[in-house]
Amino acid sequence: MRAWRIAIARQQHEEIARYLRDLIHDGVLVPGDPLPSEAELCEKFDTSRGPVRQAVAALRGDGLISSGRGRRSLVLEAPKVNSFDALISTTSLLQEANQEAGDKILRVAREPATPTIAELLNLEINDPVVEIVRVRTANETPVLIERLVFPFKIGERFLTLEPGAEALHDQLFDGGVVIDNASRTAQVSTATAHQAELLGIAEGEPVWKLEMRAFTFQGEPVEYAENIYRGDVVKVELSSVRGASIPLKFEITAAHE
Q: Which of 19, 94, 129, 189 has the most neighbouring CB atoms within 10 Å?
């Protein structure tokens, strides 16, 4: 019963946040407008103040609304944010940008987990995993090299993967594997000769290397991704509000003498 109540609360929180984001993104609420009051949202969604406050906190973390400080939060001038699906799925990311997503499969194989992969996916060394390597295209232009690694029990369904197949994360969802959260690390690098050839750029040109671990609600790791993006096609936008935490760490590392 407790787990059922938690699931309902999570659904309400996400539903309310999605409703408010849509109001902002569709221009119903413009910068300077106040959000609906807690009482209005509680009545509309037939819920308590807890899920409403969670939803408002999520928008504040996205930099979409002001901190409020005892008053109703106001809509801020802020860039649009990606959906969760777009940040775990290249197909969803390209679709949100109105780009036609394509792929060229370079490798799909069952492999023994290396020590690094075993640690990332909470497996034993040499446990079977499924590795997928593809070049992803946007409107037929290569934009990133995608390497995905799944525990075998999850990735086995992809061993017969064909170009243009249904998005992998949609297949996972349909199969009952729901990714609930993910951690990411991004770093600027330079293209190797092989990467440059695949991406249609010159060797040594800048690329973004993005690593991701994806987890279920229970904290089980279900995917490791390592994506190499062309540097000239990536733009990062961020809006933040004083007093609200943001899920980003910006760090400068320097070589030690």
A: 129
Residue 219 CA, chain-centre distance (Å), reads 16
User: What tokens does 93 get?
Assistant: 């990311």
Task: Look up residue 154 and give its two tokens.
Answer: 């999850």
The yes-or-no verdict on residue 231 having pLDDT over 90 is: yes
N- to C-terminal Cα distance for the chain? 58
pTM: 0.75
Please check the confidence at residue 8 and state whether its pLDDT lies above 80. no
What is the DSSP code string of 215-253? Answer: E-TT--EEEEEEEEEEGGG--------TTS--S------
Question: Is 63 in contact with 240 (CB distance < 8 Å)?
Answer: yes
Burial annotation 113-144 (CB, 10 A radius, 16+ → b, else e): beeebbebbebeeeeebbbbbbbbbbeeebbb
E strands present in 74-205: 101-112, 128-138, 141-151, 181-190
User: 133: helix, coil or strand?
Assistant: strand
DSSP-derived 3-state class of residue 190: strand
| Region label for 36, one of left (φ > 0), alpha (ψ between -120 and 50) or beta (otherwise) | beta
pLDDT digits over 125-159, tens only? Answer: 999 999 999 999 999 999 999 999 999 999 999 99
Residue 127, φ and ψ in degrees, nearest 5:
-60, 145
| Res. 215: pLDDT tops 70 | yes
